[in-house]
């Protein structure tokens, strides 16, 4: 099927995902927030115009591209009410197309790595696109971050938001099944940013969607996040091999630099020399959340910047959290504020199923079958 705006929406509607929000009139006035507005952001090489949507509610300002569902800016106030953009990003579409740090992007079909880009499902083996040494990272060479999404604005009571649609055809990047995906970004009147992910398939497949915002609560380009205090409600994590593929072990964090059960500055143990840190050049691991998979999102992590007072609380229904301390930022990328980004200038907190789950039967399953709907929610609550 040729994918264009009409067929993607028709496909989404046929899959029962589109609900009530499509079409004209969906962007009415919101009592609590500002109606989402759209402006051109740039053009792809083939002439396609990429748009940027601006949303505001409860003190939070969000700018989102229809390219990769990218959060291009996210502004929140500090303890004095001064806003700063706390998310790393680029100013031009060319940078988003050419470079691959996944700044602010939606990640699919599979967040993080699948070892050798290979897995077997129902007796059939699948070879995925490989883009990280021998492994497949964040969906392969052209993951969900490198596609145009169809975006529909909505207002619902005091909430404002965007529905984003993308249909990934059978065989794309090696994955079986046509996957129809709907992601909803909502800004609530309290300034929370909520992400709801939904997907259906027509053949058994694996799915693990997430968001790849790089946080610096002091403001993007303001320097290191090593002073930020982090708490993660996890007693175990998944150690990896040299290619950052989980070994399968669920190791205890107690007595190691991986213990964030009580809030501590990220920099406190980052140079402890633990072999897992040496291998990953810092933190780049999946924490096994104590709560496991839950029916509803539960609060699992808090990030706090003592200088600005800004805090971020994350709630999710997912079983894992990838904490990546920006290890591979090497000073070669220049961001929205005109500063180059260096190692540790931001961190990612990606709610997810465990990396390489399709090759680890003991990990919670990431298999999606026809007739079922993949649903997961992550909520970001900002404060001071
Ligand atoms: C991964 C890192 C990877 C980064 C890409 C993170 O989610 O855990 O290993 O380098 O994404 O920017």
TrEMBL record:
Tell me the enzyme class. isomerase
What pathway does this protein act in? Carbohydrate metabolism; hexose metabolism
Q: Name one GO biological process term.
A: glucose metabolic process
InterPro entries given for it? Answer: Aldose_1-epimerase, Aldose_1/G6P_1-epimerase, Gal_mutarotase_sf_dom, Galactose_mutarotase-like, GH-type_carb-bd, TAT_signal
Any Pfam family matching the protein: Aldose_epim
Binding-site residues, beta-D-galactose? 112-113, 212-214, 284
Q: What is its EC number?
A: 5.1.3.3
Q: Which Gene3D superfamilies match?
A: 2.70.98.10
Q: Which GO terms describe its cellular component?
A: cytoplasm
Which reaction does this enzyme catalyse, per its entry?
alpha-D-glucose = beta-D-glucose
Keywords (alphabetical) are: Carbohydrate metabolism, Isomerase, Signal
Q: Where is the signal peptide?
A: 1-29
Give GO MF terms, alphabetically. Answer: aldose 1-epimerase activity; carbohydrate binding
Q: Where is the active site?
A: 212 (proton donor), 350 (proton acceptor)
User: What's this protein's family per the entry?
Assistant: Belongs to the aldose epimerase family.
- What is this protein called in UniProt? Aldose 1-epimerase
């Amino acid at each position: 099927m040729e994918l264009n705006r009409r067929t993607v929406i028709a496909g989404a509607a046929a899959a029962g995902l589109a609900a009530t929000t499509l079409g004209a009139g969906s962007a009415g006035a919101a009592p609590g927030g500002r109606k989402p507005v759209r402006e051109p952001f740039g053009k792809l090489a083939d002439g396609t115009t990429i748009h940027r949507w601006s949303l505001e509610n409860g003190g939070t300002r969000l700018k989102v591209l229809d390219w990769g569902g990218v959060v291009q800016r996210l502004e929140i106030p500090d303890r004095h009410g001064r806003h700063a953009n706390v998310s790393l990003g680029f100013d031009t579409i060319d940078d988003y197309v050419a470079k691959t740090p996944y700044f602010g992007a939606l990640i699919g079909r599979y967040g993080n790595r699948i070892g050798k880009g290979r897995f077997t499902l129902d007796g059939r083996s699948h070879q995925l696109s490989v883009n990280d040494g021998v492994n497949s990272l964040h969906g392969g060479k052209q993951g969900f971050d490198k596609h145009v999404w169809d975006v529909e604005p909505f207002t619902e009571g005091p909430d404002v938001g965007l529905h984003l649609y993308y249909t990934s055809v059978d065989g794309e990047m090696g994955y079986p099944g046509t996957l129809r995906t709907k992601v909803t970004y909502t800004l609530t009147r309290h300034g929370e940013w909520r992400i709801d992910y939904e997907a259906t398939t027509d053949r058994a497949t694996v799915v693990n969607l997430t968001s790849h915002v790089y946080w610096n609560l002091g403001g993007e380009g303001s320097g290191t996040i090593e002073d930020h205090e982090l708490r993660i409600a996890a007693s175990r994590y998944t150690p990896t091999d040299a290619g950052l593929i989980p070994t399968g072990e669920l190791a205890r964090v107690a007595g190691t630099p991986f213990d964030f059960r009580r809030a501590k500055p990220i920099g406190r143990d980052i140079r402890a020399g633990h072999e897992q840190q040496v291998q990953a050049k810092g933190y780049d691991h999946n924490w096994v959340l104590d709560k496991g998979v839950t029916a509803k999102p539960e609060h699992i992590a808090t990030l706090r910047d003592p200088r600005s007072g800004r805090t971020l609380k994350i709630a999710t229904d997912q079983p894992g959290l990838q904490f990546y301390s920006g290890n591979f930022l090497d000073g070669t990328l220049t961001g929205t504020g005109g500063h180059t980004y260096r190692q540790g200038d931001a961190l990612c907190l990606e709610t997810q199923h465990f990396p390489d789950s399709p090759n680890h039967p003991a990990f919670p399953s990431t298999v999606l079958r026809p007739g079922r709907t993949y649903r997961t929610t992550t909520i970001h609550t900002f404060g001071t």
